[in-house]
Specification:
This protein has six helices and 13 strands. 23% of the residues lie in helices and 35% in strands. It has 228 residues and is α+β, with helices and mostly antiparallel strands.
């Protein structure tokens, strides 16, 4: 088995080799998620990404290559480079538990549309409706509606990623996200896996993650491409 440190250098790749193998699309040394589930691709050899991305773009309008420090190569006749999102990976070092005062609910399939709408309201671009199938989602309800949630995305036998941390703009600054991240982190620890997360460099939420016990460990960049 590949150890945790090696898996974290290429989390998309190893997620598709293990827990999310059923979602894997293999194209000559490059691995993508089924585009209905997630739009991430992964590789070790960037020379392989040219033909693979040409094939994958036939099924989708845009996608991301996720890489720590390698630059993908694409066919500029067919694929347009949109932007590089400079991100970082954070890994739990020592869990700092917080008081849970809200009723946190495990969200079932009946909430798929509501989850999608809230995430796209707050953080459009990454989430697809079948992203729900990648892991558990937890939410907080106020005034009869879902107002804050977090979920699990990439995962292997060794780690699970905390993702989709969003709160409706009318309910921010109430500590909801903090409690949800803490709850989700604890649920990951219960199954003896390492909690991780990814965020943009400079994100205002990084100090919150650090207070909960996460440390920045490496760069992790998202390269966005679209069909010409």
């Amino acid at each position: 088995m590949v150890n945790l440190e090696e898996q974290l250098k290429n989390p998309v790749w190893y997620s598709l080799n293990e827990t999310h193998k059923k979602f894997r699309v293999k194209l000559d040394g490059v691995q993508f998620y089924d585009q209905e589930v997630c739009t991430f691709g992964s590789f070790f050899d960037e020379t392989k990404t040219v033909e693979a991305s040409n094939e994958y773009i036939k099924t989708i309008d845009n996608f991301f290559f996720v890489s720590e420090n390698q630059t993908p190569i694409v066919d500029e006749r067919n694929i347009l480079f949109e932007k590089k999102i400079e991100g970082c990976q954070m890994v739990l070092n020592e869990f700092s538990e917080v008081s849970i005062t809200e009723d946190i609910v495990l969200l079932g399939e009946e909430y798929i549309d509501i989850i999608y709408d809230l995430i796209w309201l707050v953080m459009p671009g990454y989430y697809r409706k079948r992203t729900f199938e990648m892991g558990n989602y937890y939410g907080i309800f106020k005034d009869g509606k879902l107002v804050s949630l977090t979920g699990q995305r990439m995962q292997t036998n060794l780690f699970i990623e905390v993702s989709a941390v969003v709160t409706h703009p009318d309910y921010t600054r109430k500590g909801l996200a903090k409690q949800l991240i803490s709850h989700t982190t604890k649920e990951i620890l219960k199954v003896n896996k390492t909690p991780i997360l990814h965020t943009n460099k400079g994100n205002f939420a990084i100090p919150l993650y650090e207070k909960l016990g996460y440390n920045v460990t490496r760069d992790m960049n998202w390269w966005l491409y679209s069909k010409k």
